[in-house]
Structures are given as structure tokens and as C-alpha cells.
Specification:
heterodimer, A: alpha+beta, 36 strands, B: mainly alpha, 74% helix
Chain lengths: 647, 92
């Protein structure tokens, strides 16, 4: 072998082979984690259909037709809820079914939203959430009686009515702790948590839709599948507008007053520009909403310079030019020099930016609706009822009408940054709850790390009764008896049923488990024994640590549990222990034939046979046989390893 | 203050001021919550249910022990080989 060849072998091929092996091994291990799916996301998948070609949906974006129906769902751009494309279910043959299905990432605690619109209420629409692609777990049904239902284990439960030619958003949220789900239509009130059609074992990973087209050439439109509803409330910050009148820029239109609001960089809340009504004017402009949601929330920032106000400075949501004040977002009321904001009743704040929020719900079955407002992130008002022209098909919140009277002595009024109301501490955003009181009032749970001495709000969890204790452990007590027996705990109902809560949300005193053994008791001993005992105690006392130091060491050592690598090692240990325990549990092999699910019957497993005079069950014989094969295979590998090692 | 208290104070000071502050809670590439939820959430469930029923035919514990020994054995083998290679490289 030449020097060059030797060089290449030593410095090129062999290192490359070693590196290749290590890289492949790392990729294999890393890929294993990714392959089995990460359930940190809270929804199965998101699909807005906007990138699809017109025509058959099947074959695009992972959508399939497991039933190979004659009619296929179609992608089209004529009737959409969001973006450019939506799905249309239609058939020229009565009582034909159309089916679509798509599988995404498995989620054990999640939420799905979709939008649907019907041309008639005589069709039937099933929205199914499945496990392992085919196993039905959750179902929402738009039935041919004009009603929306969800399906518990038996029968169906009514949610609300629906009508034709109106988009409905449907939200389904499920949780693994009790395998329950809840439902919401058009961001109205959630139904109560209830049992689902069939409990899932691990997670939900598939959407399947079955549409029965009873009426010939009727249509069911389906759009925007995601975790959260799509919002059509515009975000408006004026930053890209030219200075001067806001009318004609964006969707701002003239009226109802002759003076327009003006874009200016003088005073802004966010970015470079805001709009203002200068002193001496009575400004009135309106922002047109092309497709306002039936349910939504909105925030805007206000700045009143000076110290006085006029009446009739307001922001409404309504129609134009009539019925403009369907919703009074905010309005100034001036009474002898005092300025308050209607409907919250709060005092107006001058010379600083303050927020005002509005939230509304309009019924999709009647003319009724409600709204509430909030000023400067204070308390929301109670819900205020409203009537609008739903029955006539008109939506009376198609504009935001902005008025301001700045006649002397009122100074300039500025408005900036329309946006969605930010998430707040609520059951779906527990991490935003900063105190114990706001946390439990949002139906969340309070978590306390004894070693890190930290406490914070987490999603609601059911704790084990054996963890019942004082202070933060009050929430683990499941009966009034065990609750009241603990320090600083009380059994009460704050709106979520009788539960155990801390009386005072205090951080508990440090609690340790290491106790210092006591010194020897020298009482009752003879004289010499007493002297020896006391000398022994004296010497021991010199080298004896105090309880305080022991507790401090305990807490310090405990802190390691939450640090790398110990926390990762504990998680690995828990994983292997659980897998080890599960291997001892006998499980069944599920099978499905012609839509009928069952399990493989191993009834013959317990039949016994005699081998060499020894009676054994068939199961043990088979397992012993396969064990021999496995061990033989392992032994072959061992021989090859030894040969490779010495070669 | 006893001798033991003095020694313990030194140990506690060393842990609290020198060791604990430099130990991270999360790794840069994968946070602990992601690691835990993947390992004890999806991976554990998928592993358990992937092998559900297979336990009727195989001794799963023996199978996993032997598979693990193969993986560890190969890793040690290649580590030793790599070590010999580096030694040869250095010595020439």
C-alpha cells in the first residue's frame, strides 16, 4: 500500500466513517423524538385552504376521502369566510354523502375552530374529531332540523339553532384529565364540560367531515380550520397615512360631521402617527368594517389634553348613516365641569393615554345582542343588551363612528391604535394570572415549587388527595373534613363548586424533612454514667450541627432537583419507570374490520399443554420460544462484536 | 456555632454561590418543559401503545434489555475504536 493510500485511509476514510456513524446515530435519536410527535402545540393542524387550486379538495394539503364517495368536496373562491378560498360541499344527487379527512399532530389537551355556512337547513353536517385517524371521539352535528348538537356517549345534546346564509364559527375544546369537551358557537357562551362520544386513549389527531346533501344542489361552505377563531376586527395604527384628513385613507370615510379627523405625528400612543381633533372643531369620521364579526372585542387609545370635556365626544359601533349608536363604546358626559366616561362611569383621565375596550356578542338567531365596555383596564361593565336588525339580514356594527367636540375650552383630543383586546387572566390563559386570588378566580391552579421558593399560576389540574396539606397544598384537599383540618385552608364555593382554598395566600414557612437526632438523655443514670453521658453529649455537641443549618442544607440540596442535569435525569427516570410498569400490564391488540372495532382474541392463550411432563399454558410456551430466538439473535451479535473488536 | 455548623456553612456557601448559579434549568436547544412533555407525554404514550399487545408474544423486558445492551455495546465499541484511532493519529 502506498504512502498516499495509507494517508487517505488513516486521515480521510476512517475518520469519515467514524463521524458518519456518530452523526447518523445522533440523527436517529433526535429524529425519534420528532417522529413520535410533539404535543406541546394545542391544536391538530391549521388550514385556511387559501393556497389550494380550485377543484377537488382531495389530494391537496393532506385531505383524503376514506369512503371514496362519488361526490368530492370542492375548493372555490366565491364564498369564503377568510382569505381567498374555502371548501364547498355540494351534490346534484339527493341524499349523497361527501366525506373528507385529514390527520395532523396528536393533541391530548387542545382546541379546534372551524367556520361553516349552509345554503339550507335541510342538509346534515358531521364534524368529527378522531383518534388514530379512524376512531371517533368527539362529534358536532348540524342537523336537518335547524339545530346544532354535540354528541355525548349516548344520544345528542342541543347547543343552539342555526339558519341559512350565515357563517358560524364552531369551537371545540377537549382535555385529557377527564376526557371531557366543551363547545362554543360564534364565540358565544361555552357549553359546560361534558363527556365526549367516546373517551380517547392518548390524543386526538384527525378531523373527519361527513356532509349529507339532502337537498339537490344545496351548498355547505367550510373554511378556516385553526386553534382560535379568525378575527376580522381591524388593527389600525395610522402610521402609514399621510398627514392631513384621515378620510380617504384606509377604510376611513367622511361623516357624520363636516370636520374630519386629522392624521398627525404630534402626539401618538404607538408608532409615528395618530389622529386628532384640533381645538375648535366638531370632528366626525367613520371607519368602515367590510366584514365585522358577530362576536368580537376591540381596544382603542385616547388622549384628552387640557382639563375639560364636552358631551357628544364618543365612539360608536353601528350602521351609517342611521342607527349609528348600536354600541356605545365610550362617550364623555360633562356635568358642571366633571367629566365621566359612559357607560363605565369612570372619571375621564387627562393628559395621558388611556385605553378603552369593548366586547360584543350578537345573536345569529334573533335580533338580540349584548356588549360591555371597560375604561383604563378597570372593571368591565355588566353586559348591556341591544337590538339590531338580524332578522332583516343587516348587521348594524359595520362602522366605527368617531365623534369629538373640541369647542373652547376643550383642547385637542387624540385617538390611536385600534387593536384586539389583549389576552387577560382567564381559564385559557392561566399564565397571565399574577396573584393567587386572580389565579383561582380564573379557575386555574396555583403551583408552588418548595425548592425554588417560587409560586405561579398554571392550567387547572386535579391533584391527588394524599398531597392535601396546609398553605398552597389546600387545593389538593377534596373534602371539607380534610380541608378544614389543615392550617390556613377553608372549604368554600367561589363559583366553581365547593373546593378548598387558602384563607390567606401566603408563602408557607420553609418545611424540611431532615430532623436532627437528639442528644442522649442522661436522666435516671448513675453518677458515673451521668458524667460519661454528659461528657459524651458535650463532645457530640461540638460536632453537632444545628437544626437551622440542617434545614438550610436540605433546601440547598433540594434546589438541585430543579436544575440541569438533575431535572432532566428525573424526567428520564420517570419515563423508564412508567414504561417498565406498563410492560407488566397485559394489553389487547385492537383490530378493525368493515368499520367494526374489536380486539384480537387470545382466548386460546390459556390453553395448557404438556411439555416433557410439565404443564404449561400456550402463552408461556410461545413467549419462551420467542425469548430463545431473541436471546440467540443477541448472542450472534455478541460474537460478531467480539470478532470486530479483535479484528 | 459548632464545628459542624461551620463546615456546613462552607458547603452551603459553595453550593449556593459557586455551583447552583452556573447550573441552568433549561438546555439551550430543548427546554425542560418541552423535554418532559415530549418524553413523558407523546413518546411514552406512543411507545407504550406501539408495543401494546406485542407483550402477548414476546417477553418485552428481555427484548428491551437486550436491545439496550446492543445499543450501549455498539456505542462503547465505537468509542474505543475512536480512542485507538486518535492515539494512533497522535503517535503517528
Amino acid at each position: 500500500m502506498t504512502q498516499t493510500t495509507l494517508f487517505k485511509k488513516k486521515f480521510v476514510r476512517e475518520p469519515f466513517k467514524a463521524i458518519k456513524t456518530y452523526v447518523l446515530t445522533a440523527l436517529l435519536v433526535g429524529g425519534l423524538f420528532l417522529f413520535v410527535g410533539i404535543t406541546s402545540g394545542a391544536t391538530i393542524f391549521t388550514d385556511d385552504f387559501n393556497s389550494y387550486d380550485d377543484g377537488d379538495l382531495i389530494g391537496q394539503g393532506g385531505w383524503t376521502d376514506p369512503m371514496t364517495r362519488d361526490d368530492k368536496a370542492q375548493v372555490q373562491g366565491t364564498t369564503v369566510r377568510e382569505g381567498d378560498k374555502a371548501v364547498d360541499f355540494t351534490s346534484g344527487v339527493p341524499n349523497n354523502y361527501i366525506t373528507i379527512r385529514k390527520t395532523g399532530s396528536g393533541v391530548s389537551d387542545g382546541e379546534m375552530t372551524f367556520y361553516v355556512k349552509f345554503s339550507t337547513t335541510t342538509d346534515v353536517f358531521f364534524f368529527n374529531l378522531n383518534e388514530d385517524t379512524t376512531d371517533l371521539r368527539i362529534r358536532v352535528k348540524f342537523d336537518d332540523d335547524g339545530k346544532i348538537y354535540y354528541e355525548p356517549p349516548a344520544g345528542k345534546t342541543y347547543i343552539q339553532d342555526y339558519i341559512a346564509d350565515v357563517w358560524y364559527s364552531v369551537q371545540v375544546e377537549w382535555r385529557s384529565v377527564d376526557k371531557n369537551a366543551r363547545y362554543r358557537i360564534n364565540q358565544g357562551t361555552w357549553t359546560a364540560w361534558d363527556n365526549i362520544k367516546s373517551d380517547f386513549t392518548a390524543d386526538i389527531d384527525t378531523i373527519r367531515i361527513d356532509a349529507k346533501m339532502v337537498a339537490v344542489d344545496s351548498h355547505i361552505y367550510f373554511d378556516y380550520v385553526a386553534e382560535e377563531p379568525y378575527t376580522l376586527v381591524p388593527e389600525e395604527n395610522f402610521n402609514a397615512y399621510d398627514d392631513g384628513s384621515v378620510v380617504g385613507q384606509g377604510d376611513w370615510l367622511a361623516g357624520p360631521m363636516s370636520d374630519d379627523w386629522l392624521v398627525s405625528p404630534t402626539e401618538t400612543y404607538e408608532g409615528a402617527k395618530a389622529i386628532l381633533c384640533p381645538q375648535g372643531d366638531f370632528c366626525g369620521s367613520h371607519l368602515h368594517l367590510s366584514d365585522p364579526p358577530m362576536t368580537g372585542d376591540w381596544r382603542v387609545w385616547l388622549y384628552f389634553s387640557g382639563d375639560t370635556c364636552h358631551d357628544q365626544t364618543a365612539l360608536y359601533l353601528g350602521d351609517y348613516p342611521s342607527n349609528m349608536n348600536t354600541i356605545t363604546w365610550w362617550q364623555t358626559l360633562e356635568d358642571g365641569g366633571d367629566c365621566t366616561i359612559y357607560p363605565t362611569g369612570e372619571d375621564l383621565v387627562f393628559n395621558e393615554w388611556v385605553s378603552t375596550d369593548v366586547e360584543w356578542v350578537l345573536s345569529t338567531t334573533t335580533d338580540e345582542g349584548k356588549y360591555r365596555t371597560r375604561f383604563d383596564e378597570g372593571d368591565w361593565t355588566d353586559w348591556i343588551g341591544l337590538s339590531y336588525g338580524y332578522a332583516t339580514g343587516t348587521n348594524f356594527i359595520s362602522n366605527a363612528i368617531l365623534y369629538a367636540r373640541t369647542y373652547a375650552p376643550v383642547n385637542t383630543i387624540y385617538v390611536d391604535y385600534f387593536s384586539e383586546v389583549p389576552d387577560i387572566c382567564d381559564p385559557t390563559h392561566c399564565y397571565l394570572c399574577e396573584t393567587y386570588d386572580t389565579c383561582i378566580n380564573a379557575e386555574c391552579s396555583w403551583w408552588y415549587s418548595i425548592f425554588l421558593q417560587e409560586s405561579y399560576c398554571v392550567d387547572y389540574f386535579e391533584a391527588e388527595e394524599e398531597e392535601c396539606g396546609p398553605f398552597f397544598k389546600c387545593q389538593f384537599c377534596n373534602s371539607s373534613t380534610t380541608c378544614e383540618a389543615e392550617l390556613n385552608c377553608e372549604w368554600k364555593n367561589i363559583g366553581f363548586g365547593l373546593k378548598c382554598y387558602m384563607i390567606e395566600p401566603e408563602i408557607p414557612p420553609e418545611q424540611v424533612e431532615w430532623e436532627l437526632p437528639g442528644l442522649e438523655d442522661c436522666e435516671g443514670l448513675g453518677t458515673v454514667e451521668t458524667w460519661l453521658c454528659e461528657i459524651k453529649n458535650f463532645v457530640a455537641g461540638i460536632f453537632r450541627p444545628s437544626q437551622t443549618k440542617i434545614e438550610s442544607l436540605y433546601l440547598t440540596m433540594g434546589t438541585f432537583k430543579d436544575k440541569f442535569p438533575f431535572n432532566y435525569a428525573n424526567a428520564m427516570n420517570e419515563f423508564f419507570n412508567d414504561v417498565d410498569e406498563s410492560l407488566d400490564v397485559e394489553k389487547e391488540i385492537p383490530i378493525k374490520i368493515l368499520n367494526q372495532t374489536s380486539t384480537v382474541s387470545f382466548a386460546f392463550w390459556n390453553s395448557t399443554t404438556s411439555i416433557g411432563g410439565q404443564v404449561e399454558t400456550l402463552k408461556n410456551v410461545v413467549i419462551d420460544f420467542t425469548s430463545i430466538i431473541i436471546f440467540f439473535g443477541w448472542f450472534v451479535w455478541l460474537i460478531s462484536l467480539i470478532k470486530r473488536f479483535f479484528s | 456555632m459548632s464545628v459542624a455548623d461551620t463546615i456546613l456553612s462552607g458547603i452551603i456557601f459553595t453550593f449556593q454561590k459557586m455551583i447552583l448559579p452556573i447550573l441552568p434549568v433549561n438546555l439551550p436547544l430543548i427546554s425542560f418543559s418541552s423535554f418532559n412533555s415530549t418524553l413523558n407525554g407523546s413518546l411514552k404514550h406512543n411507545l407504550i401503545w406501539a408495543f401494546a399487545g406485542v407483550g402477548q408474544l414476546f417477553n418485552l423486558k428481555l427484548l428491551f434489555i437486550l436491545l439496550s445492551s446492543i445499543v450501549v455495546g455498539e456505542m462503547i465499541f465505537w468509542l474505543i475504536k475512536a480512542g485507538f484511532f486518535v492515539v494512533k493519529l497522535v503517535r503517528g
